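Students often ask what a holo structure prediction actually looks like on paper. The answer is less mysterious than it sounds. You provide the chain, you provide the ligand, and the output is a string of discrete structure tokens encoding the 3D arrangement of the protein together with pyridoxal-5'-phosphate.
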Amino acid sequence: MLPVPIIPAFMPPRRTLMGPGPSDVYPEVLAAQSRPTIGHLDPLFVGMMDELKSLIQYAFQTKNEMTLAVSAPGSAGMETCFVNLVEPGEKVIVCRNGVFGERMRQNVERVGGVAVVVDNEWGEPVCPDKVEAALVANPDAKFLAFVHAETSTGALSDAKTLCTLAQLHDCISIVDAVTSLGGVELLVDEWGIDAIYSGSQKCLSCVPGLSPVSFSPKAVAKIKTRTTPVQSWFLDQTLVMGYWGNDSGAKRSYHHTAPVNALYALHESLRLLANEGLENAWARHRKMHLLLRDGLTQLGLTFVVDEASRLPQLNAVYIPEGVDDATVRKHLLEEYNLEIGAGLGALAGKAWRIGLMGFGARRENVALCLRALQESLS
Ligand code: PLP
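The corresponding structure tokens follow.
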């Protein structure tokens, strides 16, 4: 027998999370998560899932029937889209202007697709002209994939224009909305987005680990006419819908044991978003971003992304010359219980990423961050 490990209960400190996610979780959401666990096929739970579906539809602004929360984080939402839609040999135009566009490319290749990469510099939005040129040069492309809000740089791309281009060239659009959902305008049906995924831990201020996804009727038709089986059993939408409910009206059946309490949390966070109203939430993120921007500018910090395509919820600023990245972040964590994000990929060691997401997009957070940075940089 191994010795009995004597370990105290884990008691995390109360931090202020102003990195790229997870964001500060709403107290109501934490409370919802600790309600009694019931069975994942309990009629009351199934009723809650129906409400959850309509809340996700509201957040995405879609009437898509195939709308649900994948029982895993944003990366699984990404995989759900690629593994269900793309068949071996099919061509996908993938836009890459940061870490997550590159992750999309890797997904395409892993499912046996052919990725045609459209590159933009880190910090720039996806250029619609470049995308159009790639669509013209590749008339056999079946998909256009891009990241709406690139968390690695803080750049917002023009999803409406990109999806219009996809439609004009008869492509199915696959959109990463992990960081955009709830923080900036996103209109799935109006913009003609075909497949979209997000994450619970950013502007929804829910606990991490869930990924809302939605598929348009065009995307569903593509899934239903596949000639090869979906490589992943767990992420196969046709199987998952047996549990989330499909248009056949068939009784729901066991697929996997749903993360019951995490789904209570998502239900609560989306309920809070609906109560606030999407447009109010977008305006709040923008207002707090402007406050933060002014303060950071006064501290002499400069932004990685041009104003026109800057995300309010993810503020990437260059680390001033002579300042040690890790020392400052450690100081903020230890002295202020404040987390800001390090740079990722090409921006590692060069930039900080300051999140203003969901519950975190509020005056107290802006004030704390500015005060802490001012003291650390002086
Ligand atoms: N896509 C984007 C734009 C992200 O920011 C992230 C996470 O930060 C992901 C995908 C992956 O999400 P997760 O870390 O929840 O798997």
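The chain has a mean pLDDT of 97.
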